[in-house]
TrEMBL record:
This is Uncharacterized protein LOC118420862. The keyword Signal applies. Pfam families: Cupin_8. Keywords: Signal. It comes from the Eukaryota. One of its GO terms (molecular function) is 2-oxoglutarate-dependent dioxygenase activity. Residues 158-317 form the JmjC domain. The keyword Signal applies. Residues 1-23 form the signal peptide.
Length: 486
């Protein structure tokens, strides 16, 4: 039930996560090479700043109304030559959740060798027939439906107009795109959810946002500059004031500390990509992306699940062909038929058990088994509270059991309202889960840094087995901070 929650966030994050600057900005930047495009000037930095504290007026903090991360020392992003094997990727990056740049990882690919030319794309008959969704420049994409055009029509227009293609990789191009070697692990390939092609003439500037999935992004043409903020460390400092789309309304060229005071306290990891490079963008890490010049990227999204990553390491990866392409995998993008809410799933769940009435305890057991929650580390009283809220909303005749009767005669409006309550409460539990996983990662990283754990993964395994998120006796109450009160 409520798989939809994830899908809503996921889809919106990817549609709203990007807005284009005008093509005039692009030209100016390229012509003058001036530092007025959000790139941060290198200054001599004193950190933390002297003579100002977090108690002072936030506007006094250095960096106020400057580009994101200005006046803060950069943290680096690890760089590897090419992709490591999946086991290494899981152990060192996906399980601890840290970004990494795979330098020149796809320079041998057909996409890298051919996608720098529009003529290559034009030659495919499908480029003249298949329609694709093309985003038009709009701050709020929700209110402006994308238009559709063929790839050839897009190619005629993209360098002159503010349009960009953000779409599943067209079928006829999938064979050109290698499956990142670090994902060639059977348990991981079962977790793939979507691949998307990002094609523009450059000058895109995204908002600060995060995604509900893990991601490897490969760049086949152009340059990108990214800035990351750690989710596990700073999830309570970064305000995504548009939670429905997992993004922040902050102006990334002029960050207002009076509106976003938490931004004074975070650290920034910066990384640049050139054509042929791939980047691991970890689940929920906050990021902001600028692109320069004709830009084509493809990213592969897969479901994040710490428990499954740990299991994949012990299961082993099998032997998938090294030269696998996107064409070799059946990747099912999340269905976005908006009719399919948690209520529909509930309907079918109740249908399946026919005449039986479901008690609160039984309902809680059903929710606990939800696929979305397999990553939850321990069930807390707040989880039970959310379940109770859902139960009471569904139990319209107040007979303290759920049955078909409760769902009979609902108007569309009532269904929508009920769906809303279900999604909100599932979301509360998801937030508790996210917090637990982040807390565990921080605790393990600290232990490893102190030299008190021989292996990150072993310690993660141990804590998962014990249903704990902290180390030592003082197991602090989890899922209590940072999120809205239940
Ligand atoms: C990224 O590229 C820009 C522009 O060339 C440069 O100013 C900046 O220092 C680079 N950043 C990193 C992390 O390499």
């Amino acid at each position: 039930m409520a798989r939809r929650v994830k899908r809503v966030f996921f889809t919106l994050a990817f549609f709203l996560g990007v807005s284009l600057t005008s093509s005039d900005d692009i030209k100016e930047t390229e012509a003058t090479g001036k530092e007025d495009d959000g790139r941060v000037e290198q200054e001599a930095l004193t950190w933390p700043p002297i003579g100002v504290t977090l108690e002072d007026d936030p506007s006094l903090w250095p960096g106020h109304l400057k580009p994101i991360g200005a006046n803060v020392p950069n943290k680096e992003v690890k760089v590897l030559n090419g992709f490591p094997p999946p086991e290494v990727f899981l152990r060192d990056y996906a399980i601890p959740s840290v970004p990494v740049l795979f330098k020149a990882a796809v320079t041998d690919s057909v996409a890298f060798k051919t996608w720098n030319s529009d003529e290559y794309f034009r030659q495919f008959p499908e480029a003249g027939t298949q329609k694709h969704l093309i985003e038009t420049r709009k701050k709020e994409i929700r209110t402006q439906p994308p238009t559709d055009m063929t790839l050839r029509q897009f190619l005629d227009r993209y360098s002159k107009e503010d349009i960009y293609m953000v779409e599943g990789v067209p079928k006829f191009l999938r064979k050109d795109v290698p499956m990142p070697k670090s994902l060639l692990c059977e348990p991981l390939t079962r977790m793939l959810v979507d691949t998307v092609m990002w094609f523009s003439s450059g000058g895109t500037k995204s908002v600060l946002h995060n995604d509900d999935v893990d991601n490897i992004n490969c760049l086949y043409d152009g340059k990108k500059e990214l800035v990351f903020i750690s989710y596990q460390r700073y999830r309570n400092k970064v305000t995504l004031d548009h939670p429905e789309g997992s993004y922040s309304s902050m102006d990334v060229d002029a960050v207002d500390f009076t509106k976003f005071p938490g931004m004074r306290e975070v650290e920034y990891h910066r990384v640049n990509m050139s054509a042929g490079d791939c980047l691991y963008i970890p689940y929920r890490w906050f990021h902001q992306v600028n692109s320069y010049g004709r830009n084509i990227a493809v990213n592969v999204w897969w479901e994040h699940n710490l428990r499954q990553y740990v299991e994949a390491l012990s299961e082993g990866c099998g032997d998938l062909a090294e030269d696998s392409t996107l064409n070799d995998f059946q990747i099912e993008p999340p269905s976005d038929s908006s009719e399919q809410g948690p209520l529909m799933e509930l309907h079918s769940a109740l249908n399946a058990i026919k005449d039986k009435a479901v008690t609160l305890e039984e309902f809680e057991a059903i929710v606990k088994k939800d696929k979305l929650l397999t990553e939850l580390i321990t069930w807390t009283p707040k989880c039970s509270y959310a379940v109770k809220e859902m139960f009471e909303a569904i139990d319209r005749n107040k007979d303290s059991v759920l049955s078909q009767e409760d769902l009979e005669g609902l108007t569309d409006e009532m269904e929508e309202e009920l769906d809303e309550v279900l999604m909100e409460n599932m979301d509360d539990i998801m937030n508790i889960k996210n917090d637990q996983v982040a807390q565990l990662r921080e605790a393990v990283a600290a232990e490893v840094a102190k030299g008190q754990a021989e292996s990150y993964v072993e310690l993660v395994k141990k804590l998962l087995d014990e249903g704990r998120t902290t180390i030592g006796d003082s197991d602090e109450v989890i899922g209590e901070h940072g999120h809205q009160e239940l």
